[in-house]
């Protein structure tokens, strides 16, 4: 008989493993799942701090939590994002302006909007939806169940419906649009500053949040003081197999009219700078064994150099688990103002941690 110990606050609960099985995760890793059974006579796995609430699988009440901010978004997100500090006396972060969508830098010119599809209401037929047909496999990239959409797999780029499409906001090809859909919480970590965790169960493929900030030319960033909140928009490089933050299928053909192949630079032309303005994504830490991946999405316009960047669940993420993605820095690639190589130790705690972020 196999049993496991579950720790919740100071309590230890032992459960029998009833059944276990293997599933394929989105990133093609094997995921082992265990169905647990309470031993006869044991108390249920719940404390007075833990409640089950409808779809929101697990929600910690605030009784023994120190809330330092009721909503870091100041009411801008659909769901409030509480900030908790049970570690030290650091107050909620300030010094940045919360923004739910990208701010456009002065020298950045946005392309004109894509023409969009001619569907009405909601797009249902991938053969006739002009946006669906731009995707790998000429299909809709998402499955939508009970109002929640999930990507079928990581893609070089996802084409969603946008501003000039005939369909409306309920369309199944607009899953990333309309703000956050899972309850998130910011919390103070012992060794990584602030971090973000989910209070909901997030299924694999679900877009969790957009990485927002000031969209600026990467070259311009050399003139300003570096910060820890930069995200290069490397959609084009990913599409062309020139690198990029995450492993991709690498099977999307390059057929974008905006850019001539000979003009393409190895380095992304644009970067989202969340140093002074951004959203909850700027607080998501790095892990060498992450539960989110970076996904570029095109909707209103189709220039991949200016794609929107999302963090998407790579697996089931249970309530209270910290969210993380792989920052994917090249080792020794970060230099200080004195031009000396900077090093930053990694505290992600993964079994196969690479020990350094950069
Ligand atoms: C984008 S910010 C993430 C939010 C940050 N923790 C905060 O408090 O604002 C990136 C910075 O967080 C810290 N960080 C993120 N992941 C880390 C990790 N795995 N180990 C150590 N520090 C980490 C590093 O200081 C890094 O430069």
Cα end-to-end separation: 44 Å
Helix fraction, binned, reads under 10%
Sketch the major β-sheet.
4 strands, mixed
Shape: globular
Count of β-strands:
23
Instruction: Supply the helix-strand structural class.
Output: mainly beta
Q: What's the average pLDDT?
A: 84
- Strand fraction band? 25-35%
| Rg calculated over all Cα atoms | 21 Å
Order of adjacent strands in the largest pleated sheet: 6-7-13-14
H/E series:
EEEEEEEEEEEEEEEEHEHEEEEEE
Helix tally? Answer: 2
Stretches where pLDDT is under 50 for at least 5 consecutive residues are: 46-63, 246-255
What ligand molecules are bound, each kind once? S-adenosylmethionine
Describe the model.
- This protein is mostly beta strands and 358 residues long.
- The chain is built from 2 helices and 23 strands.
- It has helices spanning 218-221, 235-239, and strands spanning 3-8, 11-24, 30-38, 50-53, 56-60, 67-69, 82-84, 97-98, 103-104, 142-145, 148-151, 158-159, 184-188, 194-198, 207-210, 214-217, 230-232, 270-273, 277-278, 285-286, 292-298, 308-313, 324-325.
- The strands form 8 sheets. Strands 6-7-13-14 form a 4-stranded mixed beta sheet, with no helix packed on it. A 4-stranded mixed beta sheet has the order 9-16-18-17.
- Strand 4 (50-53) and strand 5 (56-60) form a beta hairpin.
- The radius of gyration is 21 Å and the shape is globular.
- The N and C termini lie far apart (44 Å).
- Residues 46-63 and 246-255 have low confidence and may be disordered.
- It binds S-adenosylmethionine.
- Residues 192-195, 228-229, 282-283, 285-287, 346-348, 357 line the site of S-adenosylmethionine.
- S-adenosylmethionine is lined by residues 192-195, 228-229, 282-283, 285-287, 346-348, 357.
- One of its GO terms (molecular function) is zinc ion binding.
- Residues 342-358 form the Post-SET domain.
- Residues 115-179 form the Pre-SET domain.
